[in-house]
Every structure is written in C-alpha cells, then in structure tokens.
Design goal:
Rossmann fold; 7-stranded mixed beta sheet; Arc Repressor Mutant, subunit A; 16 helices; globular; 46% helix; single chain
Length: 340
C-alpha cells in the first residue's frame, strides 16, 4: 500500500507541453493575422463584441469569433463586463496610429515563414556562408526593412540613453546602425553629441531619411560602407553595435570589435547590444531563436553567449569589460573602454 500510495503522488508525464510547442505556429499566425486585419486597432476604437469586430474588420462573424477566442486565449484580449479590450501591452504597441506602434515589427519575420517550415533541410547544409547574401540589396528593400524596425529601434535608443551617461562625449560611431535610431536618440538627449551611422549604401540612404525627419541632419550623418570589410571612421569616442549580433559567427564579431577598438579615440567606449545566451547556452529562448534563424540564411551566424562577447572585448584590448542587462532575458549590453 505504501508503494502504491507513493506511485499515485508521482507527477504523470504527458505530451501536452510538446503539443503546445509544436502547435506554436498557430499562435504566431493568429497574432500576425490580428495585426494585419487591424483587430487591436478596432478594439481600441470601441469594437468590443464579436459582431462589432466582424463589422469593423469586414470579415465573417464566424471568423471574427475564431480570431477573438484565440487572441483571448493568448491573453492578447481581455473580457471586461462582457466586452473585449486590449491587454495593456497590446494597447501600447499594437494600435495603429499610436506613437509606439510596433505592428510592422510583429510582421518582421513573416517573409521567412515558409523557410522555417524547411528548417531541417537548411540544417543539413554543410557549406555555410560567412556572410548573408547582400548582392542586389536595394534602397526599397532597405526602406521596407527599417520601416519595420524603426519603432522598436527608437525605443531601444531611448532605453540606451536612460542607461548610459554620454555627457562629455562628442561623437558616436553606430556600426551597422540601420535607421540611425541610437544616434538620433543620443543627439536628442545630449545637444553636444554628433553621430555617424555606418552601414551599407542602400541602408545609409534610408538612414538619412530618418535623420532628416528628426531634424538632425546637421549633427548626424550616414556613411556608406560594409562594416565587415571597410575601414571605420576614426574620430569617434563612442562605438555602438546593436541588434545584429546573431547574424555573424564568432570570428566575424571578434574582427568587428577589434576594428572598433582600433578606430576609437583613446579613452573611448564601446557598447555591444545584442541577443546573448547565458554562459552554459541553455537559454533564454529569444537569443536561441535568433541564432537558429540564421540557419535559414545558410550562414555561420549563431547565438553568442555573454562569455563569448567578453572574450571578444578582451582580445581586442578593451578594459573594464562588463555585461549589463539591457532588456532582462532578451538583450544584453556588453561594454569596454579603450585605454588612453
């Protein structure tokens, strides 16, 4: 009886967790469809029942019910007094027209949807490229890409300025800076700071558009170049490289950090902001996702650990190397100082 009693208290192992993971694509699809159809914008504007949502989205009532039930199950919608309302984060980031609207970012990975379905085929490829294929990359493609990332980039830039005191610094070099969000945020925070966004020619052209929209063309410039191979400007006392860490393998990231060290003025500082795993490489899930996603590109890019990044900084010659949480569980900020 004693043995039987202990057996009854053991936790039963079932397949529910595995089923939830393998069906996760349905959650992604529901969120993307809700953004594309404007569900959360309609709810914010007062559509609180299935019938009202159906009319606002111009979809069949049955489909409106299916979508709202799924979004409620994912805690994207909440029921209050019998009417749907947006969850707080949904209200803040997924209502079109709001300042912090990030719907384009939610759809950012959708072009890779079909290739994720072929992941096992990509993982069987033995001949990996060091760099993504950028041949033929156009201004139009760069504009679409950075339109999707701009809102989230500006949020990251403002967060950076809250975390880091650049008072007394004069010039920022943003390596692979995309839309220029970090330089724009810094220039708005410290009136004495100038910045240069260093990125591919089509991206630099788009960056100039965002810089001009913010009225900062006199203090922030965009320089065309490939940071993996071209020389860096050598007149900056701050270097930033943000949110492209998993796109490259260990040798390339170490090379870029070494180039940044050489280009910085003595006493300058570098900030590497990216999706890093813990040192035993068991998570978090976000960096692991972005690292695995590089298999879709058939490159050597991967998720770097915090220890990896510390090693890159130390080998380049930086001192006072440290890791800071940028967004807990999502992004780390690794820093170092050039002696002098």
């Amino acid at each position: 009886m004693g043995t039987g009693g202990n057996h009854m208290t053991e936790k039963r192992i079932d397949s529910v967790r595995l089923q939830n993971i393998v069906q996760g694509y349905g959650r992604s699809a529901a969120l993307m469809a809700a953004v594309e159809l404007g569900l959360f914008t309609a709810v914010s504007a007062g559509a609180g029942t299935v019938g009202e949502i159906s009319a606002a989205l111009e979809i069949h009532p049955v489909n409106a019910e299916r979508l709202t039930v799924m979004c409620a199950a994912m805690d994207l919608l909440e029921l209050k007094d019998g009417r749907y309302v947006n969850a707080p984060d949904v209200q803040r980031f997924l209502v079109r027209g709001e300042t912090r609207y990030a719907g384009d970012w939610m759809l950012f990975t959708k072009p890779a949807w079909n290739e994720w379905g072929r992941l096992s085929e990509h993982l069987r490829i033995q001949d990996l490229r060091v760099l993504p294929d950028i041949a033929g990359y156009t201004v139009e493609q760069a504009r679409a890409y950075h339109k999707a990332t701009y809102s989230i980039g500006m949020g990251a830039g403002r967060r950076f300025c809250r975390q880091v005191d650049l008072a007394g610094r004069r010039r920022i070099l943003d390596i692979g800076g995309g839309s220029g969000a970090y330089c724009i945020a810094a220039a708005n925070t410290w009136p004495e700071i100038e910045g240069v966004v260093f990125d591919l020619p089509p991206v630099a052209e788009v960056a100039r558009e965002f810089i001009a929209e913010n009225g900062l063309s006199d203090r922030v410039t965009a320089m065309a170049g490939d940071f993996t191979s071209d020389d860096f400007p050598r007149d900056a006392d701050v270097a930033i490289m943000a949110s492209n860490l998993p796109m490259y393998g260990r040798e390339m990231i170490a090379k870029v950090i070494g180039k940044a060290f050489d280009a910085l003025l003595p006493g300058g500082e570098m900030h590497l902001i990216g999706e890093t795993t813990n040192d035993d490489r068991t998570g978090p899930i976000g960096p692991a996702f972005w690292g695995l996603g590089q298999a879709i590109q058939d490159t050597t890019g991967l998720a770097h650990s915090e220890a990896d990044c510390i090693g890159y900084f130390n080998r380049a010659g930086f001192t006072d190397v440290a890791v800071h949480a940028f967004i807990e569980g999502t992004l780390s900020r690794i820093t170092g100082r050039k002696p002098g």
